[in-house]
Design goal:
Blueprint lengths: L2 H7 L37 E2 L4 E2 L11 E5 L12 E4 L7 E5 L17 H9 L3 E4 L4 H10 L3 E3 L32 E2 L2 E3 L7 E6 L4 E6 L2 E2 L10 E2 L1 E6 L12 E9 L2 E9 L7 E3 L13 E6 L6 E3 L1
Parallel strand pairs: 3-6, 4-18, 6-7, 14-18
Antiparallel strand pairs: 1-2, 3-5, 4-5, 8-16, 9-10, 9-19, 10-11, 11-12, 11-13, 14-15, 15-16, 16-17
């Protein structure tokens, strides 16, 4: 990826990925060099910027993502997505982000109506948006922002590459192995108030967070297996997403990775800007290479993280 593209992001994001020993790429593939330099693009073309891992697709890092508005009917199929966004409280469904071609990944769905959160996530990641339907106001806002929108009926979706989407806006978040210096032990996190609130428990054997709801495992409707994530990222964004500028400005964040919690700050200058994630020292906060589940909450004080 040209350095000019990385510079255009302008939000202090670094680009790094797992070493070759973590997940080897295809024969002859170039692996990115881990770095914490905030202005340097270290992603090779075969590195998926949504999870920091090598891909069998040699040009995955040069394409734009697709965002899917997923209806949470208790049997969602989202384990094939690299990033998933949920919340805030009272906002239904999930937003799943992927760069993997439809022919090479599990089904994502069922598709539901698009909401403002879906639109905000698509704009933030330079993605095309696919949904079962959308209100006229959201379709107009997406059109004005140059975000491609496709309405489909069913549980699957087209290939990730969509004409008109902007790969230059896809954030190259920092990925690194090993604990962050500011991390504290955390093996369980509960999101929001109430007994039925979503929660995550860290599985040290498989090094993943396992999603729970009401104390029970949250299963993927396609595989029947428990939903997992490598990172759980909680972003405090007050109010409900009812307008294009809902997720802008800056706010508190909590990054859960490797059985630890790191206090962080999110920054997003405008509705079409990529989001930055900063650690307590103001440097790019590193995620662990792998999938990320993003929770939007109105108040970070409602999130409980325990050792």
């Amino acid at each position: 990826m040209p350095r000019s593209v990385a510079a255009a992001l302008g939000l202090g994001l670094a680009a790094a990925c797992a070493p070759a020993t973590r997940a080897p790429g295809p024969p002859g593939a170039q692996l990115a060099t881990p770095t914490y330099t905030a202005t340097e693009a270290a992603f090779a073309a075969n590195i998926d910027p949504l999870n920091g891992l090598p891909s069998a697709d040699p040009d995955v890092g040069l394409r734009a993502p697709t965002a899917f508005a997923v209806e949470d009917d208790g049997a969602v199929e989202v384990q094939g997505a690299e990033m998933i966004a949920e919340g805030p409280d009272g906002v239904p469904g999930l937003t799943a982000l992927t760069l993997v071609d439809a022919a090479a990944r599990p089904t994502i769905g069922p598709l539901g109506p698009a909401g403002w959160r879906d639109a905000a996530v698509a704009r933030a990641f330079g993605a095309a948006l696919v949904a079962g339907s959308a209100p006229a106001a959201i379709i107009r806002a997406l059109g004005a922002a140059g975000v491609p929108f496709t309405a489909l009926v069913g549980a699957s979706a087209p290939p990730a590459e969509a004409a008109g989407a902007d790969p230059a806006r896809a954030p190259r978040w920092t990925y690194a192995l090993g604990p962050h210096p500011a991390a504290r032990p955390a093996r369980h996190v509960a999101i929001g108030p109430g007994d039925a609130r979503p929660s995550w428990r860290y599985d040290e054997v498989f090094a993943v967070w396992r999603r729970e709801s009401g104390g029970r495992a949250f299963l993927d409707g396609g595989t029947g297996e428990g939903l997992t994530a490598t990172n759980v990222l909680v972003l405090e964004v007050p109010g409900n997403p009812e307008a294009p500028d809902w997720w802008t400005g800056r706010g508190r964040a909590l990054l859960m990775r490797g059985g630890t919690a790191v206090d962080a700050t999110w920054v997003r200058a405008a509705p079409d800007a990529s989001p930055a994630l900063l650690d307590p020292d103001g440097m790019a906060a590193a995620l662990e290479p792998g999938s990320t589940w993003i929770h939007f909450v109105a108040d970070l004080g409602s999130v409980g993280a325990a050792p």
